[in-house]
Amino acid sequence: MRLGLLYIFLTFIFLSSCSDTIDSPVPSYPVSMKLDLTFNDKELKSAGAYKIYTTPTASYLSLGYGGVVVVHSSADDNYYAFDLACPYEVLPSVKIEIEDGGLYASCPKCGSRFDISFGSGHPVNGPATGGLRRFTVTPSGNYLIVSN
Q1: d(CA 102, CA 72)
Q2: CA distances from 90 to 1, 8, 76, 98 (A)
Q3: Which residue of 30, 108, 109, 148 is surrounded by the most CB atoms within 10 Å?
Q4: Residue 17 is inside which H or E element, if any?
């Protein structure tokens, strides 16, 4: 009986730690985007591709704190989205840059580097201790819905 309760408790702890948004010092600003993989955002269909969004339009209504980058990971063929603001600098004007075919992102100001290959956004080196703010990406036919 105790072993069963321990198993349930550990499962609950594990599942509750797997949220889409990791700890990030970047403020939580609204994100509301509908990406069209047939026309406007078709370059995202290729694994390893990414696209940066910094200007709101009819399809990209709310773009977080520093803008949004959407990555089509070549590591696992999934889509991930992150706020562009560096979690060490925490300024909307200091934006991360994508490198290595969408596997890593780095801050040009502080030099922090983040693993985005499987959507974690965790820092791998540099002064940043918090991760990138991650957003939910939901495929819907030929569209991707990015939100928080």
Answers
A1: 7
A2: 48, 38, 29, 17
A3: 148
A4: none
Q: Which two tokens stand for residue 37?
A: 């993989």
**Residue recorded with tokens 């070549």:** 74
CA separation for the pair 133, 128 (Å, rounded): 13
31 by Cβ neighbours in 10 Å (0-12 / 13-18 / 19+) ranks as buried
Q: Please report which confidence band the pLDDT of residue 23 belongs to, taking 50, 70 and 90 as the band edges.
A: confident
pLDDT at 38 over 90: yes
Q: The pTM is what? A: 0.84
- Token reading at 70: 């959407």
Number of H helices, E strands in the chain: 1, 11
Q: Where do the H-state alpha helices sit in the chain?
A: 2-16
